[in-house]
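Quick log. Single chain, no ligands specified.
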Amino acid sequence: MKIGVLNGFPFPEGLAATTRIIAYCKGLIDVGVECEIFTFAWHLSEVQQPYGTIENIPYYIGHVSSPKRNKVLRYIIDRPQNKRNTIRNIVISHRHKPFDFMLVSWDNIKDLHYFLPRLSKMGI
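-> predicted structure:
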């Protein structure tokens, strides 16, 4: 079984929701479920890779933006690119081994209108 987590919170370090998602995935891995985390939250860093593992859980960040970049440009350019890259990462992983289902975790209802039609086209 393979479960994907679509996350809208900062990752791998972040809020209590980030810790909760890690705890869920650790429990699922302990019972033999394969988990992957995909985040589309803004991530500002000069050096961080857009992927990695935390406690044996692979994660993928949609887009890493420079903190020196203008805030308006980050909103206009980086935010849509972040969502597109997240969907691309999910599609690549889904082609390798299909997801049984996708857990979504964020606070903004508008993001559902972007992600859910795309996920349903993939059959997730």
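The beta strands are 2-7, 34-39, 43-44, 51-54, 57-61, 64-65, 101-105.
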